[in-house]
Design brief:
The protein is α+β, with helices and mostly antiparallel strands. The chain is built from 41 helices and 21 strands. It has a five-stranded antiparallel sheet, with no helix packed on it. Strands 7-12-13-14 form a four-stranded antiparallel sheet, with no helix packed on it. A hairpin with a 4-residue loop joins β12 and β13. α4 runs parallel beside α6 and α35 packs across α36. It is elongated, with a radius of gyration of 41 Å. The N terminus and C terminus are likely disordered. GO terms for molecular function: ubiquitin-protein transferase activity; zinc ion binding. This is E3 ubiquitin-protein ligase RNF123. InterPro entries: B30.2/SPRY, B30.2/SPRY_sf, ConA-like_dom_sf, RNF123/RKP/RSPRY1, SPRY_dom, TPR_RNF123/RKP, Znf_RING, Znf_RING/FYVE/PHD. One of its GO terms (cellular component) is cytoplasm. Pfam families: SPRY, TPR_RNF123, zf-C3HC4_3.
């Protein structure tokens, strides 16, 4: 980490692929010529032949300095020695290593530069005596100095914080000279790195930089810290190397980012006795020794590979004797033995070194990178595989375990924290090497068993579990902004972009014609995007190959394949990342999991297509879900807990499987029925066959992976697109202001120009980021993955639904995944990747529509929250013209089922969203109901996941469903009665709650102290008002499409419902239009959250219902509605004067008086209807007053005090009006007063009335 004259770390880092041994075919030709040479001395004995070949191998491998050394800077100078032979080889290697060690120590102790300091140790591993430094020979983190929760790697060179504020020191300190230590960042979060003295005491609140003698740099907040803070440095990124330098002689501290000097951060450090600063740097002797051994191995490896090539050709029956006559078999054996002996001598010294993490990272990984052909990454890599063969053959188990662990960590770190390259050279190198390692069968199985996703949580494994996260290999890290600018130097964006809620409002805006320069810039931008997409696609292909390698299913060993081992690890990964089972270590980030999800789908589909069933037809057979081995980590099934389902559905489960449990407990197979005619309704469809090979289980894991993590990340990416869209709109608005700004307002114009520059800079920055998002996250291939997953889930649910109650075995997350996947395709990926470009979209939409309609009111779903999710999804589905058309084109039985479910009684279920679906069917047809948002409001921002987003869509009423609703209400009287009763009950409740809250607000507003409202109270107030308006809109639709349910009094409940409706309308009009009443005062107050509480929405729908039943119906219906309204005691014509703006004198504010005439949303025809309504009601009120009878108090109904007593209850004899008893009989058949059962109701003359309410009871008794 510290600077030195010779840095072996740098020497290894730049190893070129050109150092890879010669091509195998060239090596084979060399080997054949060598064999001919060996065969020439016919008189030589076998022993002399062995000596000749072994000497040649030793000379080639251990000769003088080789130009093809794979490791730059490796020591190759050997002293003059006696003749080298196999018996003296071990001594030769030992002496060479001692010489390298002496040279390394000498170089470190004789550093010429004053700022260079290197930690050394003697051959006896004693502590080095270096001036200016105190501490152990090896510099590491000191766990004894840690504060907070920290996870320390086994080599003590890596840490992970698991608390809000953690600190740790190094195990050595410096007091004079120039020193530097380096840290590579795993994340870009808030951290403070620097120096401190031993006197600093850290806490959970104070760390380095927060005390007097500690100094720190924070690249996240761009600050330097020493009690106080100032701006300093550059923003850091994950993978950056931060160098912390201290000059104890001058008393200064400086920092570097990736070798770039950030400037002097601190000066005037306190020095002298008692002051020493932590920490320092590690050793390099072992690295130099490993470099020499790998130089030997580099020369030996081609000969070993060549041996294997010849052996394979001979085994395949190739006749090599025609071109190159082979030596006798007795002459071939010693060559393989010689190679093995030489390799064993090398690994005898190398194996202990490969247990050291930084030796593996700095030497082994660099050596393997040189052996791997990165350009032809999908080809066989013989040199890498032969090296792994030697490792497994010549290293002990414990050595191999540590080596493989360190190798995996080094590969992961190398891939995750590589330097940026425009061609993505470094990630490609590490992916190619990782792929070649995993294609080695023994290594792959070991990694799957013991390294990737470990199951045993010992202290050692826990540390590696935090570091070895295989899904990170599936992630493509986004470059920072400067590097992204290198990838995309030219930026273009559509200057006419606008939000969806603004569609059609600025249609007059012409698209500006592009200049030649803009056209050229656009072409360059598109070319850069295309190139970036190609590079990313290549990386993704390599990542998919990695997973294909782990999913191979033909390497059986001990009854398991790699696919079986991978599945176990995948389930462990899902358990650790589920919400119910939090792991003890850090989880993978959401971007990593999303990439892992997409690559896993590609690999799964590849293997699925190799079976007899295409992946386009993939689904999960239902028998997979009732298997008790399927562990979902406490996630519920659609019918509840698994144990409960087994108790309730055991017999049905046996029938579905075709088995029968006899009385003695014996399980027998039931005979299969041959003909379809012999089957009954209780018979289940034949179970679909399983593919086997664990493919269904992996598919199940893919669905769960999307549910627990991938979907959340897809939603987060929308924020960037929305932010860029805001800036584009603001830029366009600013440019319009600049054009209109007068020249004399120079300061204003200058301010606008400055704002324009800010907007342009942000758009350029975010446009580049959006290109990355489009290519990596929202690309067409990712859209295809998600569409495929949606199809899989929909087919799974549809197939399972055929098994009646056994459908309840389906996990709930399958239902949620279907809804979330469609939402992601429709709202997250669209419009970046157009929703309408999905292959097979019409079939997918039809499938999804049937899924929603069949299950949003499915009694087999026991979780009410799950039902709410489906109802909300159906509500969103009705908001778009294209999807609404899909619903209208469903088979008639599905449409009828949908409407019947929507108008079922509202009690004991979620009704707000089902009512909202009916509102969307009507929106665009009601009185003044053609707006997208209220006239007094600007459309607010809403996340695409929120229900309010779809409410801003253009109205798209459905005449088809309106007609179907009318037919059902008129044909099914019982269903109609229950629906209207529950509808009015809910309206009465919601409006009463709303009135109570606004009365409380008025009471608080009348006090002298400032008005302070609880957010919850405001939210409930707004919700109750909105619910009331929606319920009224549904009543308006019913009154329009099926007015007979109110006006045809031959229907048993029509009169009751008409009077109840008019009573509700009268009360609403009276409360809302009351002079200086609670509603008026609440609307006048500037209360945040009550913007939607205004006169317009509730008065338009109330007046609209009156106009429909009184003005537009005519005839006897008009007369009935008019009489019911005028006879209600709470009705007043002043409320109609209020909406016409004729009540100005009451307000005293003519300019602020409310009037329908002020709103463009109300048509001329509708205003004429309101005027006719007012005129007609005024005339009828006069006539009604003239003919009104005086009713004695004792003759009035004691329930409502509005009507005469007309009904007598039998047998108790109590009396009430017909309206009140009718409403009572809708819910229960008992007397108001004595609560005794009512067997019949008579009129005052003793004749039975309301006979229909007792028919069902009589029929039930008869049955």
């Amino acid at each position: 980490m510290a600077e030195s004259k010779r840095s072996s770390g740098e020497a290894c880092r730049d190893s070129s692929p050109n150092s890879r041994p010669a091509d195998s075919s060239d090596a084979l030709r060399v080997r054949r010529s060598q064999r001919n040479t060996i065969d020439q001395p016919q008189t030589a004995s076998q022993g002399s032949t062995e000596d000749f070949y072994s000497n040649k191998v030793l000379q080639d491998v251990f000769g003088e300095c080789r130009s093809s050394s794979p490791v730059e800077g490796a020591s190759c100078l050997h002293p003059s020695r006696k003749h080298l032979s196999l018996p003296t080889l071990d001594t030769f290697i030992s002496e060479s290593l001692k010489e390298v060690t002496r040279n390394e120590l000498k170089a470190s102790l004789q550093g010429s530069e004053p700022h260079t300091s290197l930690l050394t140790h003697s051959l006896q591993s004693q502590q080095a005596e270096i001036e200016g430094r105190l501490g152990p020979a090896e510099s590491t983190f000191d766990i004894l100095t840690s504060v907070g929760i920290l996870l320390l790697d086994p080599d003590k060179l890596g840490i992970t914080s698991h608390s809000n504020f953690s600190s740790i020191k190094g195990n050595c300190c410096v007091y004079e000279g120039k020193w530097v230590y380096e840290l590579m960042l795993v994340s870009k979060g808030v951290m403070q790195l620097g120096w401190c003295t031993s006197k600093c005491r850290f806490t959970q609140e104070e760390g380095v930089g927060d005390t007097r003698d500690s100094y720190a740099y924070d690249g996240n907040r761009l600050r330097k810290w020493n009690i106080t803070t100032k701006k300093y440095g550059e923003p850091w990124m994950s993978g950056d190397v931060i160098s912390c330098a201290i000059d104890c002689d001058e008393g200064t501290i400086s920092f570097y980012r990736n070798g770039v000097f950030l400037g002097e951060a601190f000066d005037k450090l306190r020095m002298g006795p008692g002051y020493a600063y932590f920490p320092a740097n590690p050793r390099l002797v072992e690295v130099a020794q490993a470099e020499l051994l790998f130089t030997y191995l580099h020369s030996l490896l081609p000969k070993v590979v060549e041996d294997d090539q010849v052996t394979k050709l001979e085994a395949s029956g190739s006749n090599l004797k025609e071109d190159f006559p082979l030596p006798p078999l007795s002459d071939q054996c010693p060559q393989h033995v010689v190679h093995t002996i030489v390799a064993s001598h090398i690994f005898h010294k190398l194996a202990p070194l490969l247990r050291i993490p930084y030796v593996v990272e700095m030497c082994l990984v660099k050596f393997m990178l040189g052996l791997c052909d990165h350009d032809n990454w999908n080809d066989h890599q013989p040199y890498v595989h032969k090296l792994l063969d030697l490792l497994w053959m010549l290293m002990q188990d414990q050595e191999m375990q540590e080596c493989m662990d360190n190798l995996t960590v080094s590969l992961l770190n190398g891939y995750s924290f590589h330097s940026f390259h425009p061609e993505f050279k470094f990630p490609k190198k590490f992916l190619a090497l990782t792929l070649s390692v995993l294609r080695h069968q023994r290594t792959r199985r070991y990694l799957l068993t013991s390294v990737l996703y470990p199951l045993w949580f010992s202290e050692y494994i826990i540390a590696y579990n935090a570091r070895i996260k295989f899904p990170v290999f599936m992630h493509i890290k986004a470059p920072d902004d400067p590097n992204l600018a290198r990838l995309i130097p030219n930026v273009w964006w559509d200057k006419t972009l606008k939000k969806e809620e603004d569609d059609g409002e600025d249609e007059q805006m012409d698209k500006p014609e592009e200049t030649p320069a803009e056209k050229m810039n656009r072409k360059k931008f598109e070319l850069c995007c295309e190139r970036l997409g190609e590079r990313i696609q290549e990386l993704e292909s390599m990542q998919v190959e990695l997973l294909k390698c782990l999913l191979v299913n033909n390497d059986y060993l001990e009854g398991k394949t790699s696919r079986d081992l991978f599945l176990v690890r995948l389930k462990t990964f899902l358990r650790d990342h589920s919400t119910f089972n939090r792991p003890q270590v850090a989880q993978c980030s959401l971007p990593v999991i999303l990439c892992f999800f997409h690559r896993l789908i590609q690999a799964l589909r590849f293997y699925w297509d190799q079976t007899s069933v295409s992946s386009t037809e993939a689904f999960m057979p239902i028998q997979c879900f009732w298997n008790e081995s399927r562990d979902y980590f406490e996630l519920l099934r659609c019918g509840g807990l698994m144990s409960h389902l087994n108790r309730q559905l055991g017999s049905e489960l046996n029938r579905a499987q075709g088995i029968e449990v006899q009385e003695d407990g014996k399980v027998v197979k039931k005979p299969v029925k041959d003909s379809a005619s012999s089957k009954t309704e209780d018979d289940f469809p034949k179970l679909d066959p399983l593919l086997g090979s664990a493919l269904e289980e992996i598919l199940d894991c893919v669905v769960l992976l999307y549910h627990i993590a991938a979907h959340r990340q897809l939603g987060k990416m929308c924020a960037l697109r929305e932010s860029m869209l805001d800036f584009v709109v603001n830029l366009r608005d600013t440019e319009r202001k600049i054009r209109k700004c007068p020249e004399e307002l120079s300061e204003v114009k200058e301010y606008l120009e400055g704002a324009k520059m800010v907007f342009v800079e942000k758009i350029i920055e975010q446009a580049r980021q959006m290109v990355w998002v489009e290519k990596v996250i929202y690309s067409p291939s990712k859209q295809a993955d998600l569409a495929w997953l949606l199809g899989v889930v929909l087919k799974t649910v549809e197939k399972a639904s055929q098994y009646n109650r056994l459908f309840q075995y389906i996990p709930e997350f399958y239902i949620e995944t279907a809804v979330n996947a469609f939402n992601a395709l429709r709202n997250y990926m669209h419009p970046t990747t157009s929703f309408h470009e999905i292959q097979g979209l019409p079939n997918l939409l039809n499938w999804y529509a049937r899924f929603l309609v069949n299950h949003f009111f499915d009694s087999r779903l026991v979780n009410n929250d799950l039902k709410d999710t489906l109802v909300q999804a159906l509500a969103c589905f009705t908001c778009y013209p294209d999807t609404l058309k899909i619903l209208e084109e469903m088979p008639m039985e599905n449409r009828i089922l949908m409407i019947q479910s929507l108008i079922s009684p509202y009690e004991n279920r979620s009704w707000a969203h089902t009512n909202w679906i009916l509102v969307r069917i009507w929106k665009g047809c009601g009185f003044g109901y053609r707006y997208r948002y209220l006239p007094n409001l600007i459309p607010h921002k809403a996340q695409p996941t929120e229900f309010s987003y779809v409410s801003l869509q253009k109205p798209c009423p459905s005449q088809e469903f309106q007609s179907l609703l009318a037919k059902i209400l008129l044909d099914d009287e019982s269903r109609s009665t229950k629906f209207l009763d529950s509808l009015m009950n809910q309206l009465n409740w919601s409006f009463s709650e709303f009135v109570g809250i606004i009365q409380d607000i008025q009471s608080q507003g009348s006090r002298t102290e400032p008005l302070m409202l609880e957010p919850r109270q405001v939210k409930i107030c707004a919700a109750c008002f909105e619910i009331s308006v929606c319920l009224l809109r549904v009543l308006e639709m019913v009154a329009t499409v099926a007015p007979q349910v109110f006006t045809d009094w031959s229907r048993p409940s029509a009169e009751l419902f008409l009077k109840r409706l008019m009573q509700l309308l009268s009360q609403i009009m009276s409360r809302v239009t009351m002079k200086e009443g609670p509603f008026e005062n609440t609307v006048a107050l500037p209360i945040h959250g009550l913007d939607t509480v205004t006169f317009y929405p509730i008065l338009t729908v109330t007046v609209g219902i009156m106009a429909q039943l009184i003005v537009r119906c005519g005839g006897s219906s008009q007369e009935k509605a008019t009489r019911s309204l005028l006879l209600d005691s709470s009705f007043s014509l002043d409320s109609l004067k209020f909406v016409l703006g004729e009540n100005m004198a009451i307000r005293g504010k003519p300019d602020k008086a409310f009037s329908f005439r002020k709103f463009d949303e109300i048509s001329v025809e509708e205003m004429e209807d309101v005027e006719k309504l007012f005129s007609y009601l005024s005339q009828q009120q006069v006539s009604l007053t003239a003919t009104e009878e005086v009713v004695k108090d004792e003759e009035l109904c004691t329930i409502c005090y509005a009507n005469r007593q007309q009904a007598v209850f039998v047998p108790c004899g109590h009396k009430s009006c017909r309206t009140c008893i009718t409403q009572q009989l809708l819910n229960k058949k008992e007397c108001f007063f004595c609560i005794s059962p009512i067997t019949r109701v008579n009129d005052l003359k003793g004749r039975q009335i309301l006979r229909e309410y007792f028919q069902s009871t009589a029929a039930h008794r008869k049955t």
